[in-house]
Amino acid sequence: FSFSWQTTFQDGGEEVEDGAVYNVTLKKVQIQQAANKGARWLGGEGDQLPPEHTVRQYETSKIRAIKAGTLEKLVENLLTAFGDADFSYISIFLATYRAFASPRAVLELLLNRFGNLETSSHGEVANLNSLESEMVLRAEIASVLRAWLDQCSEDFREPPDYMCLLKLLDYLKNNMPNSDMESRVQNLLKQFQNQEVEAVDGFCSTSSSGLVDGEELDISNPEEFSSFQDHVVAEQLTYMDMMLFRRVVPYHCLGSIWSQRDKKENKNLAPTIRATITQFNAVTKCVISTILGTRELKIQQRAKIIEKWINIAHECRILKNFSSLRAIISALQSNSIYRLKTTWMFVSKDVLLMYEELSDIFSDHDNYLTSRELLMKEATSKFANLDSSEKENQKKSQKRLQLQKNKGVMQGTVPYLGTFLTDLIMLDTALQDYVEGGLINFEKRRREFEVIAQIKLLQSSCNSYCLIPDQKFIQWFRRQRQLTEEESYKLSREAEAAADTNILSPKSQKSMVKRISTLFLGTDVFTPPKEQPPKSSPVGGSSGESTDSASVSSCEFNHSETEDVCVTPVSSPEDPLKKVQSSVGSDKGYDSDKGSISSDKGSGSKGPIFDPGSGLDSGSIPTRDSVPSSALKVLPVYNRQSEGSCIIRVSMDGLHDSVYKSILITNQDRIPDVTQRALLKHNLEPDAVEDYELVQVISEDKELVFPRDANVFYGMNSHVNFDFILRKKA
């Protein structure tokens, strides 16, 4: 006999129980059966029988996936999900439950209510009359606990008391004595007790507090930096990034958790993410310091340092380290480096083309589509997939890549974490935590898990790296003095002024300008964009304080508040050479607060930061195949009004406009509602609504002030950025 299967799925609607709502899918399997022997005599080709001699059987099964429920129902579902064919439920719950419950609450429900074998109210075994039923429940609970310890052991790190671990250990001694689970929990408890309360490994600290006693911060020494080979620098940066990224606790990335980091009581929240941010900013500051830190450098020497950093960025690309790659590109695009027009003229043509290609990876076109697709393409690949439109760069890339392959060691992938943080914050803003009846919206958690799963996959890939720390470089990296925004801008002006007056004669300068402009523009005219001095940080504040977006705001920050900065470029104008192409003869200035070249406030990019319906996330955002039909509607996004809702950014007057909060508004919201939500997001008293006014920023010198009871959605100017300011009334 031969068999063949054909499976179809059909929406079965919803099932409502007390305290829970389920999505139901009907799985229909068609089984086709036929006798092979004699098939040819019956007119079949090969072993295939004609349709009239085939037996078809149909088997239909029901798949239930919980959509919303009380905490008790969600915990109970941990024990029944496998029977309902919701095989991913346990992983989704464990990765996201910290957004709506504590480990202690979940553990008490699991052990006290469902794990008490004498009084269990678990539906399948409510009446325990047999040893078999008891064994089923014990196996279910053991399976959940094993998954919890495997996937989220950090949930039990609660020094100094470790109450949850002790409670779990007591339960196992009474119900599963001498089991592997019991010994495992004992070992975990000992491990936690023997470890000090960790921040992150000392090597990742780049502040002066991480230096050895007696060691001081250095003003960059060009000769010492030049002594490190490009691939060595890239490998060491990758080593540091990889170690930090592997330690990231995925649930720290959830929007509901990460967005609370600026509250006073949460200054130690999400330390693993803060460490990654600190490292990113340290790389960016190191690039700027090495280029500008030494006043005595000649213009050719400064250009060589820029070339070296571009080559290091290329090595990071070969190593699939997108974090340091973006940090280096962001530094080279920062205001203080971008404005070194004369210095850039001495950077070789091949290196400039390489720089342009690397910059294109992080283009904000279509919600950073290029970087998202590239990340997904190479997430689990053995080596980088390098393509270059320039022959010399292509040869160089392939040669370096071949050396990596000859070593026989696969490469992992270190992502730019800010992309995931932004997506999770936007999901948290766009989807409600609770649905009708006060039930926890678990569909939201399924959407968040799509992003969390990508982070976990990339963390696993980092195990493929085989890198050895170079203490000489790490010590040098630690010692680098991090220039403030004002210091770097001042040094940049001095360097450019010296270059203009002492290096190039008017004739040679004109020739050089013509060469560069011809290369990138195909014209004989080169009009660099006007540069603007950076805005000063407010007294006692930081222009890089935490924001709700992890990929938009500037990280030019007060050094004393490094941990409050999001993972972003110091300033991120577009490629200075590419930017010329789109702004010749224009009067576009550099907006240091937004970290981008601004074309006046009203004509910024309209591309969505997050658009689940577009499928642009290449894995971070669910695809149509992985999302229930009920969740396929396009979610609200920033800078776009759709289906009666959108997301706006609200900053407080007196702070940098990079310190904003993302707020979802609908066509029903009026000024008091939006103002109250903005105050809550900024951790201010929501009752003070009457003391504030909400204004939309139209341009640098224009604002739209809303009347007291105006409808924000219909009253706002939808042709400019959706940026608002909350200002105390005079």
From TrEMBL:
Compositional bias ranges of the Low complexity kind: 537-546
Biased composition annotated in UniProt, kind: Polar residues: 547-557
Ras-GEF domain: residues covered: 229-498
Database matches in InterPro entries: RA_dom, Ras-like_GEF, Ras-like_Gua-exchang_fac_N, Ras_G-nucl-exch_fac_CS, Ras_GEF_dom_sf, RASGEF_cat_dom, RASGEF_cat_dom_sf, Ubiquitin-like_domsf
Family annotation (Pfam families): RA, RasGEF, RasGEF_N
GO biological process terms on file: Ras protein signal transduction
SUPFAM superfamilies: Ras GEF (SSF48366), Ubiquitin-like (SSF54236)
Ubl conjugation listed as a keyword: no
One Gene Ontology cellular component annotation held by this UniProt entry: plasma membrane
A Gene Ontology molecular function term of the record: guanyl-nucleotide exchange factor activity
Keyword Transmembrane: no
Domain Ras-associating: 644-730
Domain spans labelled N-terminal Ras-GEF: 62-193
Spans annotated as Disordered: 524-626
Keywords annotated in UniProt: Guanine-nucleotide releasing factor
Protein name: RGL1 protein
Lineage of source species: Eukaryota, Metazoa, Chordata, Craniata, Vertebrata
